[in-house]
Amino acid sequence: MSMKIRVLVVDDSALMRGLLTEMINSAPDMEVVGAAPDAPTAREMIKVLNPDVLTLDVQMPKMDGLEFLERLMRLRPMPVVMVSAYTQAGSDTTLKALELGAIDFIGKPRADSAKTMEIYAEELVEKIRAAKGARLRRQVMKSEIAPAVVPSVSTSLAGRPASSGKIIFVGASTGGTEAIKEFLLGIPADCPPIMIVQHMPESFTGSFARRLDSLCQPTVIEAKGNEKLEPGKVFIAPGHSHLQVKRSASGLVTELLATPPVNRHRPSVDVLFDSAAAVVGRQAVGVILTGMGKDGAQGLMRMRQAGARTLGQDEASCVVYGMPREAFLVGAVEEQCPLDEMARRTLLAVSR
Questions:
Q1: What percent of the chain has pLDDT over 90?
Q2: Of the residues 104, 199, 207, 270, which is catalytic?
C-alpha cells in the first residue's frame, strides 16, 4: 500500500484546525500528522513530524503566514497550500505568498450548506494532492530581479506590427499566477491583444490584474465585457464569469458569460479557446501554461484545427504538468517550450 500524504495544518483558529483536519483525514490517501496554532509551534512540528505538505493560514499571531512562509522557503522548502480569507487584503497577501513559493491557495470554507462544505473538502484535498507532486520553484531574491528588457514586436519581429490582427489567448491554473507574470514580463508594450484565463476566485482576479499591470509593459485589466481588443491591452478573466472573444459592429470585443462551469471551472480555459477557434481562427495564438487538470486541452486542439499557432509549457518548467500535458497528449500543442522562452516563442508565432 502506498504511503499517505502527511499534512501539517497551521491555523490560529481551533475551529478551523478541527475542520481542515476532518476534511483532510476523510481522504483515503492523506492524513493530518499535526495541527499548529502559530508559526513557532509549526516550526518545531515540522522538525519532528517531517510533513509532505503544509496548509498555512495567512493571518496568525506571533508571526504572520507570509513571514513564516518566506523563512520556510529559504531554510526548508516544502509544498505549501495557503488558506486565505476572501477579502481584498487576503487576495493581495495570497498573491505575495504565491510569489514567495506557495504552490496554491484556497479560501476559508463558508458553511453555507453541507453541499458547499463537501465541494470545499474535495477542492482542498485535490490541491494538497497536486502540491505533493508539484515542482518547487527556486526562490528568487528581490536583488536578483533585473528589469525586463523587452523587444518591440513592431521593430524586432520581421517588421510585423502589433496591428497585424493576431490575438494571443492564454490559459493557466496551479502555478499560473507566477507563470503568467513571467510570460508578460517578456511581452512588449505594443503587443497584440492578449486574453487570459487563470483559475481563481472572483475576489482575487482584480488584485491579480492590478499587480500585473504594475509590473508589466502592456496595460493589464480585469475584463468587464464589451471592451475592444486593442494592441497593448491584456484582459484577465474575472473569477465569476467565462471570458470569450466576440465579433461586434466595432470589431472584436471581450464577452463575459455567467453560464455554468465547464470542466468544473468558471472561468474556463476551454470556453476562451473555443471562442478563439470559432471567431479568430488562424489569426490566433494559443498558449497553455502550468495547471492541474485538463481544462483547455480540447479548446487548444480546436484552435490548432482552425489554423492557430499553439504552444504549451514544458514539463520541466511547470509547477504542475497537468493542463499542458493533457493538451500535448491530444495533439493540441504544436510546440513545447520552457517558461522562460514562452514570451519570445509566442512573439515569433505572432510574426509568422
A1: 80
A2: 199
For the residues of 16-40, what is the DSSP string, one character each?
HHHHHHHHHHTSTTEEEEEEESSHH
State the amino acid at position 221 in one-letter form: I
- pLDDT tens for residues 58-92? 888 788 889 999 999 999 999 999 998 766 677 88
Q: Is 240 a catalytic residue?
A: no
Out of 52, 270, 274, 295, the active site residue is: 295
Q: Are 195 and 217 in contact (CB under 8 A)?
A: no
pTM: 0.91
**Does the annotation count 199 as an active-site position?**
yes
Catalytic residue among 84, 91, 173, 317: 173
Domain 5-133 sits in CATH at 3.40.50.2300
Q: Respond yes or no: is residue 270 known to be catalytic.
A: no
The CA-atom distances, in angstroms, between 74 and each of 60, 126, 138, 197 are 20, 26, 9, 31
Fold of 153-351: Rossmann fold (3.40.50)
